[in-house]
Amino acid sequence: MINSKIKNIFLSSGELYVNNIFHVTSLCLFVIMVSMICNTIGSSTIDQITIQNLIFNLSSRLFNIGLSLGLIKIFLLLNNNKQGDIKTLFSSFDLIFHYFISTLIFGIILCIAILPGLIILGISSDLSSLFMMLFNTFQIIPNNMQFNLSTLDTSDFIIHNQLLFIFGIIIIIINLIWTTLRLQFYRYAIVDQECGSVMALKNSYAMTEGNTYLLLQFLIVLIIINLLGMLFFMIGLFVTIPFSMICMTQLYLEMKRNIL
Question: Among 16, 99, 122, 249, which has the minimal tally of Cβ within 10 Å of its Cβ?
């Protein structure tokens, strides 16, 4: 049963989205198109490793990050009955460094979180054969890298203790989900509060205290909504992605006010 407060967030987000559907969708489409153009140009130069290409790829990624932070700012304004515009998309580029450092720290924390599970996997199986099995599923083709499950071969993978191995996987999954749920709002904190990298992570951790189950419910519903969007030839994502961002912003603001 979905918590009533979670329902209210989705209902109010739906109303806000309907009232601003053209404005929100057009800005999201702009960011998506710019990102796709940058990625397409970057992919076409990936086989030519030059200083110019490396600088372009780095610059385009930083540019996309700046736009995504600007988009978060627009959704924050929208939830405060204000409207941002194209200029607002380019107003948060000064926060890219804080975002980069926070994301780096976040990645390190995730690695630490899964370390106990990896240790259990190392005790219960041959990790070298596991990594080799996973590596063989990657197919590197020009300008792309694919994960091909048809090439997955488990014949050489050695498990010493199956129950312990399963327990290790469960530990990894639980720690990943828990850590992600607790620290997921650092991007919003950076844009909204303009705080430092470490403080943004601390604020996200503090505001989600005691709300892990509610956050998990929210995440599951959001995943289902976007999966439904994918069913309509991916076109539905143009509706579900902006709606999801509005929902996430409202959830952040609710957490910030300690209402949940």
Answer: 122
Local confidence pLDDT in tens for the 260 residues of the chain? 677 888 899 999 999 999 998 888 888 888 888 888 877 766 665 556 677 777 777 888 888 899 999 999 999 999 888 888 888 889 899 999 999 999 999 999 999 999 999 899 888 877 676 666 666 665 544 444 455 555 555 566 678 888 998 999 999 999 999 999 999 999 999 999 988 899 999 999 999 998 898 999 999 999 999 998 888 767 788 888 999 999 999 999 999 887 55
DSSP 139-168: EEETTEEEE-GGG---TT--BS-HHHHHHH
In a domain, 146, yes or no: no
8 Å CB contact between 110 and 180? yes
Torsion, Cα of 47, 51, 57, 60 (10° steps) = -150
Tell me if 249 sits within 8 A of 184, measured CB to CB: no
Range of the domain at 45: 4-125+160-256
- pTM, rounded to two decimals: 0.83
Q: Is residue 214 part of a domain?
A: yes
